[in-house]
Amino acid sequence: MSTTVFYDRFERHSHGQGLKGHATHYCPGCGHGLAHKFLAEAIDELGIQNRTVAISPVGCSVFLYYYFDVGNSQAAHGRAPAVAIGHKLANPESIVVSYQGDGDLASIGLAEIVSTAQLGVPITVIFVNNAIYGMTGGQMAPTTLMGMKTATSPHGRDIYMGKPMKMAELIAGLDGPIYVERVALFDAKQRNRAKKAILKGLKLQVEKRGFSFIEVLAECPTHLKMTPEETEKWVKEQMQPNFPLGVKKDLTPDPWFEPPKPSFEIDQLLKVVGASSDAPIRSAKGFPSHIAPHDIAIKLAGSGGDGAQTAAMLIARAGINEGFDATHIPSYGPESRGGTSYADVHVAETEVLNPAAPAPHILIAFNAPSLAKFGPAVKAGGTVLYDSSVIHEVPKVAAGVRVVGVPFAQIAVDLGKAMVKNIVALGALHAATGIFPKETFLTAIRLTLKDKCALIPLNEEAFAWGIKSVEEPAN
Amino acid sequence: MPQVKERPKPFLFPEFCKGCGRCISACPKHCIAMGEEVNPMTGLVPVVLDLEQCNGCALCIDACPEPYGLQPTPAEVADFELQDPEKLFGLRHTEAPAPVDIPDEWIPLPACEPLVIKGNYAAAIGALLAGCRHFFGYPITPSTEGAELMAKFLPKLGGTYLQAVSEVATVNHMYGCGGAGLRCMTFTSGPGFSLMVEGISYMIGAEVPGVFVNIMRGGPGLGNIAPEQSDIKLACRGLGHGNTHAVVLTPSTPQEMLDLTLLAFDLAFKYRNPVIVLGDGYLGQMTGKVKLPPKMLKPGLPSWAVYGDEMHRKNLISSIDLDEHDLELHNLDINRKYEAMKSEARADLFMCEDAETVFVACGTPSRMAKGAVEDLRKEGIKAGLFRPLTVWPFPLPQLLPLLPRAQRIVVVEASPGQLRDELLLALSQEGISKYPRIESVTHMGGILPQQHEIMAAALGRQEALQEVHA
Ligand code: SF4
Ligand code: SF4
Ligand code: SF4
Question: Are residues B161 and B232 in the same domain?
């Protein structure tokens, strides 16, 4: 049968000049030509020439794209299956063929082929196994037979070089693939089977059923240093016992591959990213310049469960809702996993220049080490708020720093939820510094909890208690 | 025609026969034999056919590895040996149409309130607004959050999130998806980016667009996960083997994480080249105010794509070119693109008009430098911040006007001098030998230069200058 899937003229083969316009670059008798032909015929038979994307590998078949009149993509060594997945997911209607040799697939590309096979996305892999590296000049391949002499196993492959890889069996052992068969080209019967297998592998993809893998035992007369006829015999008599032919796996699951189509709907996108046109209610009269003229630095410090980061984020959100600029950075590095949790917050009238707060105007400390560490760094005239239910000793602070103890944790426990101690702290921050009006904080809290409305009353109560304990200290 | 069912016998152009003999053993009727004459055009010995016994079984045709080797004899052809195979077989396939660009479409967005989000989050939103619906990635701290966000968002937008088996697979997924003409991206960090540069070289060679957001961390080796500007050199000078460059963007605020990721996709498709966005862990985690742009992109499909449809059947994505002349021409084309990319150099200037002390910093260290500039101004020192938004190409045209007035340049960076090297290279490539002394404030290992250190460096030098003048 002749096929129309090969180019009329191989323009990419030395610009199609002379005989190269109609002859392959393969050596006489090379199995690649046959595998190409059967693939081309299958594409023809299924009527998928327009939809096909062929991935060329690195190796002798690197120039697959010289011949196939389909969409072509040439991959890095071993990566053809990964490239194939990129194409398939970009256009699920495309029919993607990853064509690879044994060095490409069974050595450098092992991770790609195994993971792609397991992924199970419908693509078709044609694996040409001729037991040797062709293009680089006859070196040992992962599929080279034991005892076989190659350029890099000049005394024959021995046990120190490991045994040949049986890829069809390996791939069939995975859950992803639906069809795995090993075929050969050495006589008419085998060629007929090879044709059918390639056709079937493609058909399963067209039907959106799954991943198929066809291993083709092929002839490399050049590096076996035999005539093509001897090579056919060698594949039959030497290779075949090592690589048993036949179907290794054959399932026909229901068609399933129908990924969704990308959406560019504005409303959906805005919803997904959480954007809205609703302006938040603004309550502040202006920038709280009584704390600092244009830019207020706040540090919150505690241990992991104290909620310092959430409180920090709420302050930043409150500032931004009021039309100011604000930043929040959590402490960074391994210490954040060791149980301590620091956050730097800035609220600036127009722009936060430096988001770090090594010398803050305000410190909120949830435990004694945090207070000891950062208390002395608070700027003169600043404010320190600390959890007096767990901290009993206050370090020396700069002149004019106001130090306020509030039993954040105790209040939260009394409210029945230890977690809200950070909200108690925010109440205290409001009362002690007047940074933002009460409503500003409450709006930020409500916005943040909009998906957990049930928690809002408790948080509001915690906030109120924070205010109260600054305004009317218990003792 | 009386015998409708008669099967065609094979025929062969001797010049397309490689003389492999595979057809000989395939023929049950022994119609084919090894030839004896060397074909003068090929230097090979084609087989000879004697078709008297031939029953048209076609087994020989099936055994022939050459596409234009043994063929069934076309019905009406008599003296086929004189003909060209193209004409002999008539029009052999449907001609694929010439591909055309399906244009992108910008869709206006309603005015929205600013978001209060982290830098990583902002970059992910930037990608969505740029029309990216395909994400490939491998988890690595401190970039993972970006990938997690895409995993959360994309299914809600009909997009695809694929966790690759490695960074090597990631970049090759991008090669495929970008090669199909779609907008795709990854989030990664230093060690992962190292693994991707092989594929980036292929993307550059094959002219495949894609966006890489590298949230840099401490190195070398496993290093740590704290913020370092460790990959400026790799991104500017080391994108794999061969003649490689890509625009390298350096945001320093969550807002810029969004804006520059959006820009990255534009540039990637404008130049058919990867684009790198260099962030750091500090910036990725930083929450700030982020405004959405006025429009978002609904991507079209470029004419060069290998999309897997009729329109794009002619196309090829490939970086191999055996012909030395062709490959040199390709490199010259690439160089012209690099030259054109120089027009994309961008910088942000803060109080630079009269600056005598010019800080050069990008990314998070530029925030500390910005704070320092303000405080130095309060001390009466004419400091300014020159902040490259692209480190490749380095925004030298924007820097040059500042040089006559500058008494010194202080490079502030969280790396041993990778940004300073880019500055020096840019100056030397322009042949500029007169520039103020270049000093550095650097930290490594995940420590960022602090504002007080930057100020001390500036003040110390200022005092030294004053002493000289006195
Ligand atoms: S070296 Fe071997 S595999 Fe490569 S083209 Fe020649 S015969 Fe085929
Ligand atoms: S068609 Fe059959 S009989 Fe005729 S030459 Fe070919 S293999 Fe022999
Ligand atoms: S199989 Fe084809 S290439 Fe080989 S000898 Fe026969 S006609 Fe020639």
Answer: yes
